Each structure stands twice: as C-alpha cells, then as structure tokens.
User: Which sequence fits this backbone?
C-alpha cells in the first residue's frame, strides 16, 4: 500500500514540516498516523515529496521529518478531458469521484439542453465547489499527486469552441437513427489532447450533435449497453487510458 497523500499549499523542502489545519486533523484524528509511518505531501499540481511522521500532536498537528527531494510529475500525454453534462442529484459528485480515481485529467461541467439540473446563481457556485472538493478528496484517496482540473461551467457554444482545440474529440452517443463508431477502434493521437463529451440522461440533442460535428467531434459508442451519464465518462476514460498506453 502506498503512503497516504496530504495536500499542502507549497511542497516543503525540509528538514521538518508541520501539517496542521484540516489536513493535519485528518492525518491525526482520522487516519491516526503514528511516528515512523510514511506520508506524501503534494500541491495537487504535480509537485510532491515523501517524508516520515516524527510526531502527532494534539488533534490536528502532524510533524513530518526526513523529507525527501521534491519531485515533479510530468503532465500526462495524451491529456484526457471529459465534458460532463450536469447529472441530477449527487450523481455529479459520483461521476467526478470515479473519473478522478480512474485517471481523468480535466472535467468540464456542461449545461446541456436536456439537463434536468441547471447551475444558476449561488446554487451553481456551490455545486461547482462540491465538484472541485470531490476531485481533491478523490485525488488524495487514489494517491494522485496531480489532481484533475475542474473548469468553470460551459455552454454548448463554449464546448463547441473548446472541441476545436482537441487533437481528438468524440461525443459518446448511442442512437439507432444516428450512426456512431466504436470508441474501442477509433484512431487516437499518441500525444496532445483527447476530449470526450458525455451527454445527459436525456441524450445529446440533434442541434448539439450538429454543433459538435462542425467542431470536429464525431459520434462514438462504448458498447452494446447504454451507460448512465454518471458512469459513461469513467468507462470511456478507462478505455482510453488502456488504449493510449497510459495504463501500461
């Protein structure tokens, strides 16, 4: 089992570092770390270092010593972004959590035409904050040191413009009246960026499909079964990580 991961504002260079606040409380009171145990400290942006617990003080102070050199994990390639239509209820956080654990690099919240949920005003800001907090916690849980970036929400027009920047863009779409190719056999770039669009439970509208096609995104399917919007992005990310060699 790899060492538990904790997030810091700046990765320390030693010789000692005190982890306090919410992260310190989690380490001391929840994880109940003890002297001699290893930990990883990261900024969540690829920089990280290892250390060993020297002492646990009170309920929220962990003294970390024997800090190693600071490492920088390179940006993965090809970079995988999922444009996720807003699911209803807490299924959005579920989608973010599982995609983060799987290895997605970026998630774009998308207000699709057929989304039941729409992020507006203060409620929208709170929902975005929940997605970002979920990505952070799932990144720690899965021992990542480079957490996925959760962008601001995008409209269909903004998503279409974003798709034009990708080296490979795909819309996950299953409809007998609209031909689609299997994602498992699509020609993928060896580097650059891959962007996947996951529609809402009601599906991607014909107008959205047309806009995305004009932006260079073809329609692709995962398999014979139709996945929910909260699981399709995770399944597609796993497929691409295997096919591109990032899981090799």
Assistant:
């Amino acid at each position: 089992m790899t060492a538990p991961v904790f997030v810091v504002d700046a990765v320390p260079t030693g010789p000692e570092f005190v982890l306090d606040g919410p992260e310190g409380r989690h380490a001391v009171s929840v994880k109940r770390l003890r002297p001699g145990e290893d930990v990883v400290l990261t900024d969540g942006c690829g920089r990280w270092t290892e250390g060993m617990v020297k002492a646990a003080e009170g309920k929220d102070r962990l003294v970390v010593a024997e800090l190693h050199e600071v490492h920088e994990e390179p940006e993965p390639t090809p970079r995988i972004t999922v444009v996720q239509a807003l699911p209803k209820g807490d299924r959005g956080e579920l989608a973010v959590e599982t995609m983060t654990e799987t290895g997605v690099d970026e998630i774009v919240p998308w207000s699709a035409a057929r989304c039941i949920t729409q992020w507006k005003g203060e409620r929208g800001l709170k929902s975005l904050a929940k997605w970002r907090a979920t990505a952070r916690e799932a990144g720690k849980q899965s021992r990542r040191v480079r957490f996925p970036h959760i962008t601001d929400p995008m409209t269909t027009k903004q998503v279409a413009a974003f798709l034009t920047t990708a080296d490979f863009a795909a819309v996950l779409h299953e409809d007998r009246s609209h031909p689609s190719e299997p994602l498992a056999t699509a020609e993928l770039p060896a580097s650059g960026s891959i962007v996947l669009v996951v529609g809402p439970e009601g599906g991607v509208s014909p107008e959205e499909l047309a806009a995305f096609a004009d932006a260079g995104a073809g329609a692709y399917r995962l398999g014979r079964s139709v996945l929910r919007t909260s699981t399709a992005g995770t399944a597609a990310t796993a497929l691409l990580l295997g096919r591109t060699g990032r899981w090799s």
Remarks:
- The first strand starts at residue 5 and ends at 7.
- The mean pLDDT is 94.
- Helices lie at 21-30, 91-102, 121-141, 156-163, 206-214, 229-243.
